[in-house]
Write a structure and sequence with these properties.
Elements: H1 15-27, E1 32-40, H2 42-50, H3 57-70, E2 77-80, E3 86-89, E4 94-103, E5 106-115, H4 122-134, H5 141-150, H6 154-167, H7 169-176, E6 179-181, E7 200-204, E8 212-220, H8 226-250
Parallel strand pairs: 4-6, 6-7
Antiparallel strand pairs: 1-8, 2-3, 4-5, 7-8
Helix pairs in contact: 1-5, 2-8, 3-4, 3-8, 6-7
Amino acid sequence: MPARRPVGRTLPLSLPRRFVVDLMHFAQRTPTVPVRRRMHLAQLALARRSSSPPVGWAATFLKAYGLVAAGRPELRRCYLSWPWQRLYEHPESVASLAVERDVGGEPAVFIGLRPHPERATLAALDAWVRDLKRAPVETIPSFRRLVRIARLPWPLRRLALWSAWAVHGRWRARHFGTFGLSVVAAEGASLPHLLSPLAVTLNYGPLRPDGSLDVTLLFDHRVLDGAPAARALADLEGALNGPVLAELRSGTCRSLRAA
């Protein structure tokens, strides 16, 4: 008898996978453009490694971008389409950090939200990032909200997210953030074609031996143009090599994990 051919299987969408599907639905409706800058961060990399224990790269980028956005209102804006086309400017930055967690044996993406990251110490930001990666999912408010929304039937789920994404600026900042950070540099890779529903999303690649790394800023062209986006990256490098580096060198950046 002929050998029986392998049969595939149909898998239902898990709750976190539903969220990613919805996120990509809105990301495909956001006309984003990437701008990239090679940043020279050798001194920052050395200071970061010299801190005890080392502060993660995510914390340094969150604080640096928060500092830049505090002085650049255009980096805190988003496009809203209903009931009329307009821009909304949030009074403060809200960082949106994508992290991978294991849920029922499946890798899942969750989003952590942090208002005004520029006001936090690097130690506090680093502790927050580590909590997002290690604390029980049910103890993190934004994770619980994600799971709660993912449980809704498809039409209600899309309506709830659309209302925050397209209608109300304050809701959008609260549920999506004003800027995002999504990286896989720890895996030795970058995300050159990242899709995002946010007006600004940052992504950086692995650190090179000479202390440089490529940083990509993905921006919504309805909100921001290329030249301001390029200047924002230049300011970001300045913030990393300026106040962020100074904080690392000051000795005040003792991680809360060591307390």
